Amino acid sequence: MHILSLTPTLLPLLALLPGVSAHGYLAKVTIDGTDYVGNVPNAKPDPSPIRQIDDIGPVKGASNPFLNCGQAAALASVVAPANSGSKVQFLWGDPGATNWPHNTGPLMTYMAQCTGTTCDKFNGSTAQWFKIDEIGKKPDGTTWYQQDVMNGQAIEVTLPQNLAPGDYLIRHEIIALHLANSLGGAEFYPSCTQVRIGGSGTGTPNATVLFPGAYNDNDPGIFDPDVFNPGQVYAFPGPPISNLASASDSSSTEGGQAPSSAISGGIVSPTNAGGSKATSTPASSAPTASSTASSGKTCKLRKQDSGSYARKRGVDAAGRKRHFLRSAVARSSS
User: What pTM does this model have?
Assistant: First the structure.
C-alpha cells in the first residue's frame, strides 16, 4: 500500500460554519490512472462504481448490517474495468471541510467476488470477503497513516497478482479509534467499489469472512483502552492478509505498521484501465460506455441536490472535544 499526495476537487458546502469538522465518505477512486468520483451521500447520483451511502456519519457496532459497504449503501451503476495487479487509489473526504477529519486508527482493504451475477446487481450482504491489505501506525510508533488521509492524501493498494477473472467488490475501510477507549466507541467507515477483473488468473482465497461477523466490539484493535499509548503495538482486527496477497503486494510488516513505500506528487496521467503495470487486459464483457467511464476519462460530479448531514460528537487524539454540527447544503440538480 502506498500513500499518494492527492488533493480532491470536491463541491464546497454552502453556508459552511467556520472551524466545523465532520465525518466523511469515499470521494474518489483511481484505477490504473482512471478517476471515478463518488457521489455525495443523498445527492442525485451520477454514474460511478462507488456504492453511494446515505449518511456521512460512522457505522457503529460490530454487528451493524451497514458494516458491509457503509450506511445504507446502494448498488452502483458502473462496474469499472481492472486487472490483477492494478493500482487502486482511495481518496476520502468530507463534503464540508474537503479533507478527512480523523487521524487515529487503521485502514484495511478487502475484496469479495460478486457470485452469480454482476456487481451492479449483487447484494453485498452475502459477500465472502478476503483481506488484501492493512496499515496502522507509522514507524515512529505514534503517528497513524490515517493522519495522511486527514492531510488530503490518497491511499494506494495493489490488487493481488493472480485474481481469477470476474466481478469483485473492493471494500476499503477506515476505523476511527479516537473514542475506542470506551467499549462500542470505535467508528467504522467502510466503502465498496465495483470492479471487473480481466485476464486468466486462477487464484482463490483460502479463507473468507462475512460483514457483519468478522469483528466483535471487544476485539483488540476495536476496543482499545490504550489507543493513545505511543508505545503500543496495534493489533489489526479481522482475518489475516489473504494467501492471494503476497508479501510484495501487502503493506504490512511484522507489526502491520508500515507501507512498502510512499509516493508523492499529483494524480498520475490517465491510462487505459489495462495499463502498462497490469498483468492482463479487461474482460471482453466489461461495461459499455453508457455504464462505465471510458479509459482516460474522469466521471464528473453532478451539482448536488440540497440536503443536510447529521454531525456527531467525538474526541480527537489529543483528547480535545470536537463538535460536529449540522450544515445545510444548497445545491441544484444538473
Answer: 0.73
